[in-house]
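Closing statement on the manganese (II) ion sub-project.
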Amino acid sequence: MDETHDSKLKSWIEVNENSDFPIQNIPFGVYSPKGGGDLHVATAIGDYVIDLAYLDDAGFFIDTDIEETEVFHEPTLNAFMALGQKAWKEARLTISRLLREDNTSFKDNDELRKIALIPMNDAEMEMPVDIGDYTDFYSSREHATNVGTMFRGPDAALMPNWLHLPVGYHGRASSVVLSGTDIVRPKGQTKAPDAEKPSFGDCNRMDFELEMGVLIGSGNILSEPIAVDEAKDHVFGFTLVNDWSARDIQTWEYIPLGPFLAKNFATSISPWIITMEALEPFKCKSPEQNPKPFDYLNNKKDCNYDINLEIHLKAENMSESHIISKTNYNYLYWNMAQQIAHHTVTGCNLRTGDLLASGTISGPEKDNRGSMLELSWNGKEPISLPNGEKRTFLEDGDIVTLKGWCKGKGYRIGFGDCKGTILPSA
Ligand code: MN
């Protein structure tokens, strides 16, 4: 850790104690001015967005790997992410220093403040990354056990491979959307267990999945796997992920090749990417693994993180959101270094901008479950909302918001919101 992690750091920009974006965070995203204008790379502090393209034009990134590049003028983070870890750290350090209360070079430059310091309400957040490939894992033991118990019974809940490898599938990148994008209820083929024939129509078991996404910064060359203890250096940062799921479509289609249309209509991500540097103080041990994994999966460095997670649901006629689940990223059995090592062990190449989602994150208790499928136990145990309504799966007009944050000493490293509203099928 370095000076950017000091919990005593204060900025000349006012930051509320409960803000997701104190000076210790320094997330990266892409915004455009609400009145119209170019997309630029930005960071967030308190209730402000800071345009990094203008800070670069002002010469603040001289003598870093960002100098001579135009990465902050790009409409996505990909070019910046491709520069690698040294550039990411230099950017973080430069921004941290510029925002400190005793630094006047940006604070006292009125012309620059006028264009580069933008109230969040005047900024339109944009898709931060051009995502090339999207992989979804299934790494929460509690989630896999819950789902397995519902479909196969408690004795065969985990498949024989589950404790030996991080199970995953290749998802769809084209439909990864930014938080705030409406989610249209999909249509598809379904078959009720007692029905003789399948039918075609609206999905009736619309669900969310609370996940965390890893965004790859620097990739690997084809046929050169990433070693488990080097995996973290390839990661640019984390984002919240809602892997929307059509459970009735999934049940009918998933054997033998796994989820297909049940997952390909939309996946939401939060707009700010929280870097590995920002998360460093919240690193923690992974759950103990038994049996011991193969050497290629056996990481010696801790690579798990203490990140509080919440799912909020707001039905159409509710005035405010209601928390339906609280869990933590640190419940994951397989950590992201193991996921990356496994993904590439065949020689498969990851590229800048690839998204690797954790899989639904559930914890040991009922109110730690990360999907409606589990919260309502496959529709058998409806949950109650404060307005008296019950839910087994999502209804049209429901708004689902995921939140995440790490609790620091006097500050929190937040992720912002990952939000989506269910619209009736087209
Ligand atoms: Mn998923």
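The pocket of manganese (II) ion is lined by residues 136, 209, 211, 243, 359-360 (CB under 6 Å). With this model delivered, the sub-project is considered complete and its resources will be redirected to Aim 3.
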